[in-house]
Structures are given as C-alpha cells and as structure tokens.
Automatic annotation (TrEMBL):
<feature type="domain" description="Secretion system C-terminal sorting">
    <location>
        <begin position="304"/>
        <end position="381"/>
    </location>
</feature>
<dbReference type="InterPro" id="IPR026444">
    <property type="entry name" value="Secre_tail"/>
</dbReference>
<dbReference type="InterPro" id="IPR011042">
    <property type="entry name" value="6-blade_b-propeller_TolB-like"/>
</dbReference>
<protein>
    <submittedName>
        <fullName>Putative secreted protein (Por secretion system target)</fullName>
    </submittedName>
</protein>
<feature type="signal peptide">
    <location>
        <begin position="1"/>
        <end position="19"/>
    </location>
</feature>
<keyword id="KW-0732">Signal</keyword>
<dbReference type="Pfam" id="PF18962">
    <property type="entry name" value="Por_Secre_tail"/>
</dbReference>
Length: 383
C-alpha cells in the first residue's frame, strides 16, 4: 500500500496560498493575432490583478532539463519561453505553471514562487506554423496530478509527469471523434479547434473549442463525444480560457477580453460575472478539477463522494450486490493508516463516514469486504 500511495501527487498543496486569487491567466495584447503579454494571477470573482508572474519584457532564468544547466534562448525564435504565440496553460498544486509555444514542441515550467523556468525538451511532437491541427492550444491538470495537453485536431495527447524532481513526457496517442458527432467534429477547424480543456475527478476531460462547442472524452477510451454548444455567451465571445476555480465553478474567458462567464456543465448554460477583463485571455489554468455531483451517483454502483472534502466527512455508497460488513480505511499520502471504521449490513446502503480533524492534503479511501478484498478505492482531497 505504501508503494502505491507514494506516487500520489498533492494537487492542492499550497492551494490555500492562492486564496482569492485562484486562477492563473495567460494574457495577450490587443491585436488581431496572438501576441503574448504576460502570465498573471487572476481573482475569478474580481478580475485581473497586477500580480504579474512573467511578461514578455522580463529576463527570466531558463534551465534545460536535458543539459541540467542554465541556457540562453533566442528571443526572436518560435522556441523560447516568451514566444509571441502561446495558447496553453496548466497549473499544478505546487504553483508551477506549464505551457507550450504554439509553433514549438518545447514545454516550459514556470515556478510562480521563484519565477525560474525549466525547459522540457520534447521530441514527441512537431507543431508547425503551417499546420494548425498540430499546434497545442488546450492544457489542464488531471485528477492524477499529471498535466495533459491536446493538439487542435486531437491528433496528439501528451502527458507530463513529475517524479523525484524529474519530468517525463509521454505520447498517449490520438483522441478520435465519436461516431455520433455528425458535423460537430473535434478534428475540424470550424467546430473543434482552439479553446481549452478541464478534467474531473473521474478521469474525464472536457474540451471547449473556441467556437463554443463542448466535447468529452475519457483517457481510457480516447474518443471525444460532442456534448453540445454553450448557450448564453456574447456573439463575439471566443472561448480560449477555461478553468475550475476554488469554489468548483467552471470559469470561461475570451481572447477578445470582456466579462468572465460561469458555466453549468449539465445544461451548457453560461452566465456573465461581474469580473470585467480588459485584455485578451488566451488560456486559464488552476490546480482544481471538477468534483463529482451527489445527484450523479448511480445507486447500482459503488462510490465514494465528495472527493473534494470541506465538511469533515465522505459518503460511501455500495451497490445492492454487496453483502455483509465492510471496513473503511483511510490512508494519508505517506501510506499511513489514519482512520479505520466498520459499517454493517452494507447492501444498498449509503453511509456517512466522519473523517475527524485531518490536515489538508490527499488521502486514499479503501472500502474492504470482510475477507479483505477491496470493493472500491478512491482518492479524496481534504481542504
């Protein structure tokens, strides 16, 4: 158990330091073309802040992960940490910003605390200025703590992982269109390109195209299903930034600036917020994922919810087929058992499991049968 738990990444370590400033924004200059301006912290309730992490005029230290030393980059090239064309952004729980220039395979990691940048030399992809489908414009953190980025046409999904201070990049393959998508294809520029994506705590990813179309895929199937087109957005709204804020809400931002919007995923209805953004936003990032909704729990399946715990308890739902008693064991990220409770007559039961005063962090909840067999295991995050 300790071996498996040691691989957990704390998505929300340091998240409390973000406080009201719960989202990071990749902003641009007022122009018909994409021109990078800066990375900054965004208060999703109030709007843009003056807390700029990196601008195009800065002279940051860039370290090559391959050469293991500080390097100098050509500021006039497509492949540098402050390239003019950048449209991807993701944030991990340690306040590190991941991004890629549009016309380069390079992946950069900006430490929001030290302002230093690590270059990950990526040889698995080849985005070019002449092939829009090969360019990366969507990036997010997954429920497993890894960073995922998807090309415009879905032709390549990359996973960026970190272990023992070393980064690795893996090509997960092609995200293809579901057979029922009809004319609303992820792989078509008119319906699927651009935008951003987010993840939920069930390993699903949601892609939001610049034109407002929404697709969903699971990493185990790699097929994007068209969910519909967002409603309630201004006609001029170009959906380029999407992120989950500290309250669990989906926030939408436009490359043309203006008012932020929230989105209800179940209805695809967008609502304007009071936060007024007076500059283009090319991408949004946060260390949060969508959490499961209690109303979506299937009574015929085993489940543990919520996965983002703020009230000191979780619910354990077990299917009708389960019999006898069960042990509810909770382990911390070091693999230590911090809670062990027993529930009786588990068939088709919903049980509230009090967690006590656990410190903020990631935990693993194991539900085991009387003979020690695991019924369900799920990661939770205690705020």
């Amino acid at each position: 158990m300790k071996k498996s738990l040691s691989t957990l990444i704390l998505l929300f370590v340091g998240a409390s330091s973000f406080a009201q400033q719960d989202i990071f924004a990749l902003t641009g200059k007022e122009s018909a073309n994409i021109i990078f301006q800066d990375f900054r912290v965004l208060d999703s309730k109030k709007g843009i802040t003056e807390n700029i992490l990196l601008s195009g005029n800065d002279q940051p230290k860039v370290y090559s992960s391959k050469l293991n030393k500080e390097i100098s980059e050509d500021k006039k090239s497509f492949a540098n940490a402050q390239a003019s064309q950048i449209a991807t952004l993701a944030v991990d729980g340690n306040g590190k910003l991941f991004y890629m220039p549009m016309y380069s395979p390079n992946i950069y990691v900006l430490d929001s605390k030290t302002k230093e940048i690590t270059l990950l030399e990526n040889k698995l992809s080849n985005p070019t200025a002449c092939d829009a489908g090969s360019q990366f414009s969507r990036m997010t953190i997954g429920n497993d703590g890894n960073i995922y980025t998807l090309s415009n046409s879905g032709s390549q999904l990359l996973k960026i992982s970190s272990k023992n201070g070393k980064y690795t990049v893996e090509d997960l393959g092609i995200v293809t269109d579901d057979s029922g998508n009809g004319d609303n294809q992820l792989s078509k520029m008119q319906t699927g390109f651009g935008g951003d994506m987010i993840a939920d705590d069930n390993n699903n990813f949601y892609i939001f195209s610049a034109k407002g179309n929404v697709f969903k895929f699971n990493i185990n199937e790699m097929k994007a299903k068209f969910l519909g087109k967002m409603k309630g957005l201004p006609e001029s709204f170009s959906t380029n930034g999407v992120a989950v804020n500290g309250e669990g809400k989906i926030i939408l931002a436009s490359a043309k600036g203006g008012v932020l919007h929230t989105l209800k995923l179940e209805t695809l209805q967008a609502e304007p917020m009071t936060a007024n953004i007076n500059m283009p936003i090319y991408d949004l990032g946060s260390p949060y994922v969508l959490r499961s909704n209690k109303q979506l729990i299937n009574i015929d399946k085993n489940d543990i919810y919520p996965t983002k715990v703020s009230e000191g308890f979780v619910n354990v739902k077990l299917a009708k087929s389960q019999k006898g008693n069960a042990n509810i064991k909770v382990y911390n990220a070091s693999g230590n058992l911090v809670s062990n409770q027993t529930i009786t007559n588990i068939s088709n039961s919903e049980n509230r499991i009090e967690l006590g005063k656990l410190v903020s962090g990631v935990y693993l909840v194991n539900v085991e049968s009387e003979n020690g067999k695991t019924i369900i295991s799920k990661k939770i995050i205690v705020k």
